[in-house]
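request received
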Amino acid sequence: MSKTTQKVDEVVIRFAGDSGDGMQLTGGRFTETTAIVGNDLSTLPDFPAEIRAPAGSLAGVSAFQIKFSSKDIHTPGDEPDILVAMNPAALKVHQKEIRPGGTIICNANAFSAKNLKLAGYESNPLEDGTLDDYYTLYSIEMGKIVGLACEDMGLPSKTIDRTKNFFALGLLFWIYDRPRQSTKDWLKVKFGKRPELVESNIRALDAGYNYGETTEIFTTRYTVDKASLPPGTYRNVVGNYALSLGLAAAAEKSGLELFYGGYPITPASDILHALASWKHLGIKTFQAEDEIAGVASAIGAAFAGNLGITATSGPGVALKGEALGLAIIAELPLVIINVQRGGPSTGLPTKTEQSDLLQAMYGRNGEAPMPVIASATPGDCFYVAYEACRIAVKYMTPVMILTDGYLANGSEPWQVPELDKLKPFDVKFADKEQLADGQFLPYLRRKDTLARPWGIPGTEGLEHRIGGIEKEDVTGNVSYDPDNHHHMVETRAKKVDTIAQEFGPTDIFGDVSGDLLILSWGGTKGSCLSATESLQADGKKVSHVHLRWVHPFPNDLGEILIKFKNILIPEINFGQLIKMIRAEYLVDAKGLNQVRGKPISSSDIQQAAKDLIG
Amino acid sequence: MSETAVKTYTRADFSSDQSVRWCPGCGDYAVLAQTQKVFPDLGVAKENFVFISGIGCSSRFPYYMDTFGFHTIHGRATAIASGVKLSNPDLSVWVVTGDGDGLSIGGNHTIHLLRRNLDINVMLFNNRIYGLTKGQYSPTSEAGKVTKSTPFGSLDRPFNPSTLAMGANSTFVARTIDKETKHMQEMIKRAYGHKGTSFLEIYQNCNIFNDGAFAPLTDKGTKSDKVLRLENGQPMIFGVERTKGIRLDGNTPVVVDIGDKWSLDDVLVHDESDYVIASLLSNLTYQHDFPDPIGVIYAIDAPTYEDLMVDQINAAIEMKGAESVQKMLNAGDTWVVE
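response:
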């Protein structure tokens, strides 16, 4: 029969299944292929904290969402157009979020009485008609078809059944007209030592593709044109990986050796994994006995002249708090990465949240100011990491990077950076030239940055002592003098404020004045930008400003804020940046606050904006 | 470590310009003095010494040494020192800590440093009391200790630093006493000479909050009976006339009189590399019928963490070649937008 092809601008697909169904992998392959095809894309993995929750249970559902488009997009999409549900639990958890009129593709073989019961269905939704009024439903016996496809291979039926995710992938490749070859190549590398698995998965992939091609069920294919991205070489990149590359780039550009001390924690561990695999870059990774030892070893490394890095998530930052104070008073360069997740306590380890901003700002004893920079997109993690390292060394201060679970695991097409085009990152350790009357003065500051010299062990003539006790300025000797303490507290704060001299004028998306300014930080940038675009298209006088550095604020921020009648600050927390903005600028900003473990949708922001300005 | 063309130093070269602020009569003075005496003989360029400490009376130590020093936070000195050593394995890294700092709040970091075997020298000042916080009991205080925080006696059973170190897979465990200055010098040299983490426990008298804690081990009249001086390959004998010995009765150590019933041949001979003997010796502390062993309890050769780390890095560079990050940025599935 003839098949029609329809061109669409953008598509949102969600793959959902049991933890053991390989949904992250399926999503990952679809993403890589979509990137190669040249669409702009944005992804949102969403998986449970349990490694293997009971099979078929609601708790065990793992999902991966991708939005891809022929246009420049900023978010992984609000409501999926297509849900691929590999079992009843996946359907149950995700069905309510599908766009009305959307499509559901299910693996009918998983809809057994047992699985239906586990998911809480009283009757089979594939058969009882409950879905038909709202969605286009495709119920396909994926398990049975891959069984037939691999029948002659002599493999255990369990092994064959595990290929059904590649059937689903193949079908989606057909529907959206994507090539299979890169996935086949990838399978050959992935299962290189198990040729039977390469073969069975390729057969499943082809079976899915051919199912779309030959059966009469699917009548329409969709094409999504290439996005018009700026010229250059692109790759798809995940946030944690981009961040790790940024750290490595900082080490190479500065000539510093990179020392990473850390303790495994979701969702930050992939940074440790990436860096640990790059031994050939001379990178040292140290899996410490706990979070405190992770940061402590990085502080020791900074004292000894390495680029000291630690990464963690909120609970880890809580544990590292005292040590961060030490890095602040010792004025050592250090980069701390907080890949935020839902809190408090263990909270929602695999879900995203922006609720550690105030912890980053104030979560230490004493007056302990620390610069805070936040990534806006997965690819931006690279530049943020590089910039944090550069500022830490230039100003001799710890710097906190905030990313979040969504940025860390999400991905986007990424123009490959060129190291030569990054800002220069020169480092000069103190040496004998800087001795004053034969004495090294560890707190003799530069006038432009207030940075103290970095005099490292092993340098002749520079023997000196520093520590966590308040020090006399210039000499660094222990001092309990009241005026000196006041001076030092003031100086440390001033030094951090001085970093704002590094920022250019703040970018304003839209007019410099108007009815509403949407102000964002971190991973909500995409949703805020999308919402602003839509509102502007509706003729609203709305602009958007995104803060890359949350501390210090840009010097021109106050002047920007007062030119708008309303300010809206969407955050995945209960109002943190808004407190800082209101306190600093005395403006009546309004918040849009949701903590549901996922990004705030662009449509919710648009609604909040309309509620404010009509 | 480069030992070529190292300058000749004197004790004064290792004294900083800061006035020492320990209480008069504190055992810490003796440790500082012996360290400053020994350091000129170690053949290390002064700028390569680094002292890292945590919090406590002993942790003020770095301020008084004219070397690189970092007085950090409570309990974390061993972790910070690990970062220092891994950043620059050429440095001679020393940790000064105490029974509170190193065994209580920092106990976790101590055991993990010991098992990893970085070439770091740990000097643990054990005075069996919290000095800086003014006299609470510590994890090494004897059970029933009456202090400000335990007016009815402490309920804690103490542990024994050297037993802990053995349990943590240490490669070097030794003990000395603040008043045994010559012995201490020897132990500092042995600790320095050991390639790997050396754990040197120093019995140190806090004359303000726990005066006389080690008096039986240092008083002229009793010390011969209460101290067992370990020497590698030598029988474990002690006493004024050197007529008492440690004998193994099955697996149980007993004190015997050398003479009629037992001869020198029946006495246990120390072997620093013998894990069983070392474990047994480390356990003699707090047992009133036994003398406290001092000297090197255990010393074995094992690869250091930093050497293994450097080997891994070199092997990776050899295999993959030293690479620019640019190449990694360009790697993977890429496409060109014209």
